[in-house]
Amino acid sequence: MTDDVRNIVLGVIAAGLSAAIGWLARTYLWKRRLRRKQAFFGLPDNSESLLVVNRDAGSPDLAVHRYDVFALLELSALIKDCGANAQVVTQDAAQQGFGERTEFCVGGPGSNRRMLAHMSAMLPGVRVNIDPEPGPDRGAFQIGSERYRMEAGVTEYVLLARITAGQSRPVFLFCGQRAITNQAATRYLARNHERLARKHGNHTFVLLLKVVNSQAYGPDVVELVADVTRAAQAPLPAATAPRTSHRAT
Predict the structure, then answer these.
(1) pTM of the prediction?
(2) Nearest-10 crossing angle of helices 66-81, 179-200
(3) If exposure means fewest CB atoms within 10 Å of the residue's CB, which of 46, 118, 149, 205 is most exposed?
């Protein structure tokens, strides 16, 4: 074998080894990221999850708002990426206990009784004004002593929560002042789940998000207002007067 042939053979072998090592490294990193994602969402391979959808509060029929449908699509993609399965049920048909399956609950307590039950049981420090009559406090959030009012299409708020309560599978809540804010919260989770997992681990958190100028930007411009986990889990006094009213400016 001549030196030229030997060099070619050695080069081919070295290239093959480098490609194999690179492929193994990428596969290892991909699997590690997948396992972390599955742990955060409580969705191991072939596990079952529940998508609980509300009804359109502005419709007399048992309809689902189109932005809530978009939110379900965002969540379905996350579930599929984890190698898990999803069952979609309406808010009045979800009767499973807490922690049996990972649950994604979409919609405010005025249109989703399942959300109302979760918030009453696990987020006693949050109140949502579900009065259908027009007024400045319609849809407003009260979290502890703070009140967050919305200006439709300009400044709106949504709660994004991951709750475990010591159970094996978490419940994710997307409680917005309008349907478009529910989609904004699911999109925020899809884009930031790795950062949220690094910061919070697999523990409970409650985030207050602000959706900015949805009439122009849709659900894409979202700002983190605060981590309100502690305030949301602390019971409100019987007659809590809001210290601050946050209005759109």
Answers:
(1) 0.82
(2) 30
(3) 46
* 3-class SS string, the chain: CCHHHHHHHHHHHHHHHHHHHHHHHHHHHHHHHHHHHHHHHCCCCCCEEEEEECCCCCCCCCCCCHHHHHHHHHHHHHHHHCCCEEEEEECCCCCCCCCCCEEEEECCCCCCHHHHHHHHHHCCCEEECCCCCCCCCCCCEEECCEEECCECCCEEEEEEEEECCCCCCCEEEEEECCHHHHHHHHHHHHHHHHHHHHHHCCCCEEEEEEEECHHHHCCCCEEEEEECHHHHHCCCCCCCCCCEEECCC
Q: CA 35 to CA 51: how far, in whole Å?
A: 21
Take residue 106 and report the two structure tokens written for it: 């979409």
In single-letter form, the type of residue at position 10 comes to L
Per-residue pLDDT tens digits for 203-244? 999 999 999 999 999 999 999 999 999 999 988 766 554 444
121, 163 contact by CB (below 8 A): no
For β-strands 146-148 and 126-128, DSSP reports them as unpaired
State how far the Cα of 124 lies from the Cα of 102, in Å rounded to an integer: 21
Structure tokens at 166: 């010591």
Pairwise CA distance, residues 124 & 172, whole Å: 16
